[in-house]
């Protein structure tokens, strides 16, 4: 059969079906999720182990990948594998209820916690950038972020366009059609709006066209604006990828006197060397400059970012609604270009998402390990049956079924929260237990793994993103994601990980993630009930501690103890 990486070359995807290669489904789930991250339908550059988000990797090297696969195939039901920045480094006897895999990626000690030290250590082969879900084997392609983007734009519409609560007749301008950014055009059209997205790399636009995330592409900005305006006037959804640099596009729009209704960006600005492209170069020219003269590359990249932010601010000045969509472009420009007004437009979390976090709501996702789409369709029905009163959720499931193509292992995302009922079950636990029953009853053909983005209610400290402008000023306190990971280990999650730098770059964030494998067993039910209480519960207490009334209310309604609330 050859080594695991030789096998990857051959089948290039996750193993599927109901027969397993590992000793148990928990290890098998880890193996399939790692390989799913590297499925060419899922990952952006799988041959380099790059999954998404600039250089977010699933394993440190192909040797490390081989060793991880071998370890997982051999791992017992009472053992735990340790993965340090994408390389397996140890294996210990633990117990059945303990995690099977523990992962730490990209973490550095405070004084050394920056890209410069990271790149030195990376060059020595000692560390790997895990982004968020890349290094924790929870990435599911652009479908993973689509609901988050959809919800963000829906909340924007509710706040700014109360008459329609949709983007009908509105034009959204953005940049970046990569792994995550590629969800933007579809999320805009799902909300009824029109999207113009700049992307320097034509292949990335083609990929979004092929998978139905974007409708058209052009090199001609006038044509894009004309088509967008015509669609908006008719109230029709429309999306177009413009093959150009985003900073150049915003300036050219302003020169023409064109101001969109909404402006944002999702280029990989968190990484000035390997994520963002400077103006004035084709992709090939810029890639060559990076190789030959990284210092000039970084200088030019940051200069373009500054023009990019200035373009966003100028559009805001002219009446556009502006927000940063989690790539730290404001922080980059403020830190490296001494730009005083870079933060004069808000990040998406304080603007639109924090009220959801206060209730423990976040991007719950689940993956059918069988590879059979019918298993996900059965879970879609289960969501509808379990939450008959949630019209918004039903609309989302309908839209997702119609418009979101599966990539790799079939999966689904749904924002669910704490919101415990009288029986004490949280929304997330109730749903996970239902799936576990369906697996036990044979209505779903193989186990389902439930995981989430690191971007969740109680799992991130990221002062320019998830914890921007916290009510009590606790933005940079990173005890919370550490407590989240420790608590989810105690609760029995099957994989637990802690990363540095996801979304916004090294030194700017600490965050944690977990997986629970629902194989239909009583043990899986026990773990799911606990983890899907502790995990969203962390979101509730983190925001209650910061003084958010919605979180305190959620804690009272759902009986979540907040020890010092009355002192
Ligand atoms: P990616 O690296 O897969 O894609 C980035 C894309 O931007 C690439 O296609 C690249 O060609 C393009 N690009 C770079 N510079 C450009 C420029 N100046 N003009 C036009 N196009 C340019 O990254 P991704 O996975 O799509 O993530 C994008 C960013 O969003 C990252 O910074 C990531 O950390 C962040 N992110 C945000 C969220 C969120 O929830 N808001 C979630 C995940 C990631």
Automatic annotation (TrEMBL):
It comes from the Archaea. Its cofactor is NAD(+). Pathway: Amino-acid degradation; L-histidine degradation into L-glutamate; N-formimidoyl-L-glutamate from L-histidine: step 2/3. The keyword Hydrolase does not apply. Residues 14-137 form the Urocanase N-terminal domain. It catalyses: 4-imidazolone-5-propanoate = trans-urocanate + H2O. It is found in: Cytoplasm. NAD(+) binds at residues 53-54, 131, 179-181, 199, 204, 245-246, 266-270, 325, 503. One of its GO terms (molecular function) is urocanate hydratase activity. Its EC number is 4.2.1.49. The keyword Lyase applies. Keywords: Cytoplasm, Histidine metabolism, Lyase, NAD. Binds 1 NAD(+) per subunit. Coiled coil: none annotated. It is an enzyme of class 4 (lyase). The active site is at 414. InterPro entries: Urocanase, Urocanase-like, Urocanase_C, Urocanase_central_sf, Urocanase_CS, Urocanase_N, Urocanase_Rossmann-like, Urocanase_sf. PROSITE patterns: UROCANASE (PS01233). Residues 355-556 form the Urocanase C-terminal domain. Catalyzes the conversion of urocanate to 4-imidazolone-5-propionate. HAMAP family: HutU (MF_00577). This is Probable urocanate hydratase. It comes from Natronococcus pandeyae.
């Amino acid at each position: 059969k050859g080594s695991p990486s030789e096998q990857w070359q051959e089948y290039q995807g996750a193993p599927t079906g109901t027969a397993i290669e590992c000793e148990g489904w928990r290890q098998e789930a880890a193996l399939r999720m790692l390989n799913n991250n590297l499925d060419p339908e899922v990952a952006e550059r799988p041959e380099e182990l790059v999954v998404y988000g600039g250089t977010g990797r699933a394993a440190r090297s192909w040797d490390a990948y081989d060793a991880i696969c071998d370890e997982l195939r051999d791992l017992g039901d009472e053992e735990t594998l340790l993965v340090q920045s994408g390389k397996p480094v140890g294996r210990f006897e633990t117990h059945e209820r303990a995690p099977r895999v523990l992962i730490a990626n990209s973490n550095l000690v405070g004084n050394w916690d920056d890209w410069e030290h990271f790149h030195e250590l990376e060059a020595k082969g000692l560390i790997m950038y895990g982004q968020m879900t890349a290094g924790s084997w929870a990435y599911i392609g652009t479908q993973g972020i689509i609901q988050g983007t959809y919800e963000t734009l829906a909340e924007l519409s509710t706040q700014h366009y109360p008459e329609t609560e949709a983007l009908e007749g509105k034009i959204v301008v953005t940049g970046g059609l990569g792994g995550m950014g590629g969800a933007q055009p579809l999320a805009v059209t799902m909300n009824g709006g029109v999207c113009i997205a700049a992307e320097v790399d034509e292949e990335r636009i083609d990929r979004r066209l092929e998978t139905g995330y974007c409708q058209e592409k052009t090199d001609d900005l006038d044509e894009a604006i004309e088509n967008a305006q015509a669609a908006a006037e008719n109230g029709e959804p429309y999306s177009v990828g413009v093959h150009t640099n985003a900073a150049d596009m915003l300036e050219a729009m302003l020169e023409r006197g064109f101001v969109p209704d909404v402006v944002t960006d999702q280029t990989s600005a968190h990484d000035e060397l390997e994520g963002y492209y400077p103006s004035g170069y084709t992709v090939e020219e810029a890639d060559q400059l990076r190789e030959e003269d990284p210092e000039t590359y970084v200088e030019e990249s940051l200069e373009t970012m500054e023009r990019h932010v200035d373009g966003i601010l100028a559009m805001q000045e002219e009446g556009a609604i502006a927000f940063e969509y989690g790539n730290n472009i404001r922080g980059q420009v403020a830190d490296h270009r001494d730009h005083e007004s870079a933060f004069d437009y808000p990040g998406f979390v304080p603007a639109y998402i924090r009220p959801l976090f206060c209730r423990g709501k976040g991007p719950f996702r689940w993956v059918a390990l069988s590879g059979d789409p019918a298993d996900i369709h059965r879970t879609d029905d289960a969501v509808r049956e379990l939450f008959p009163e949630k019209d918004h959720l039903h609309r989302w499931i309908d839209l997702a079924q119609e418009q979101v193509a599966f990539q790799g292992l079939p999966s689904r995302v749904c924002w669910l929260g704490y919101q415990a009922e009288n029986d004490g079950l949280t929304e997330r636990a109730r749903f996970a237990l239902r799936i576990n029953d369906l697996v036990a009853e044979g209505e779903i053909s193989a186990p389902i793994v439930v995981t989430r983005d690191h971007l969740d209610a109680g799992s991130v400290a990221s002062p320019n993103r998830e914890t921007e402008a916290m009510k009590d000023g606790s933005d940079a306190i990173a005890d919370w994601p550490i407590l989240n990971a420790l608590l989810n280990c105690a609760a029995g999650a099957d994989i637990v990980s802690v990363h540095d730098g996801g979304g916004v770059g090294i030194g700017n964030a600490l965050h944690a993630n977990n997986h629970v494998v629902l194989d239909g067993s009583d043990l899986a039910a026990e773990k799911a009930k606990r983890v899907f209480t502790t995990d969203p519960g962390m979101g509730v207490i983190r925001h209650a501690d910061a003084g958010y009334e919605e979180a305190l209310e959620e804690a009272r309604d759902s009986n979540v103890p907040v020890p010092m609330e009355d002192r």
